[in-house]
Design brief:
Strands 8-9-7-6-10-11-12-13 form an 8-stranded mixed β-sheet, covered by helices on one side. It has a 5-stranded parallel β-sheet with strand order 2-1-3-4-5, with helices on one face. Helix 1 (19-25) packs parallel to helix 11 and helix 5 packs across helix 7. The two termini are 35 Å apart. It has helices at 19-25, 36-39, 56-59, 82-85, 99-114, 117-125, 149-160, 188-191, 214-219, 237-246, 287-304; strands spanning 6-10, 27-31, 45-47, 68-70, 90-92, 141-145, 164-169, 173-174, 181-184, 197-200, 225-228, 251-254, 274-276, 312-313, 318-319. The chain has 11 helices and 15 strands.
Length: 321
Amino acid sequence: MQPQPVVAVLAGNRPIVGLAELEREAEVRVTDAAGLPAALPGADILYLWDFFADGVRQAWPAADSLRWIHVPAAGVDKLLFPELAASDVVLTNARGIFDRPMAEHVLGALLHFAKDFGRAAAQQRARQWSHYGTADLAGASVLVAGTGSIGRTTAQLLTAVGLHVDGMGRTARSGDPDFGTIHASADFAAVAGQYDYIVLAAPLTPQTRGLLSRDVLAAMKPTAVVVNVGRGALADEAALEDALRTGRLAGAALDVFEAEPLPVSSGLWELENVLVTPHLSGDAQNRLPALARQFADNLAAYKAGRPLANVVDKRLGFVSV
């Protein structure tokens, strides 16, 4: 009989969903970041239940038998330090869990600006009855930067409500089932002016850092809106704030920021044409049980010697399918 795998679980403030079931399938060591160096020796698997926690790189020398790390998140940019990237340790993520909630968040953000719900809320607080015009979403154009599962689900949902959706990825191509056209990231500034909305849903990699640059912002329509549900560093935040403050850009719905929590000193808080949300676009109510089930399924595959799902290409920084 094969011995049970040893799973080190990096916990946080939220309860570990599915812990009892996990303890039936593995030897489990629950720890915080401070205790991780003591929990890693002899561990086969590291389960980063608290995927925002620091400490993995610092504890890395203690990972003497680690074979697999699972991150219950879509982005793995915070974890891909050089020692892990160069190792044989397999890295998996939660691809698929956050797709629909994030797509719905994007749709809500577009509706917020098209229907000027911010103005409606302000008038309600002021007990002011004042009619104003709104825009149609149907027929508007959207460029989704990021053609992975989140970007594709977003494109499907926006297409279903009547928007024209193109994509942007590493290379240009046509004939895609979800996007009208896929532009190359290198052409962002050349095509940005064609769109009413630009959605950032790409993983953060060295190639995508600063993707929404000052040049891209200058090329956009002054009536355009940016939605960022990817990572804050996908955008030049200072240039974005400047464009929003000076009216060169109509609005932005920002769920992610270069520094999180967003510092109270940030000028983005005060701008009426900005919708700030605290990195919650994927946080639907059923996400924690779904994340636990996903890991349990992958653990069963691991124990049976089957291929793991959602293996991250550590050179690219995302799951390549």
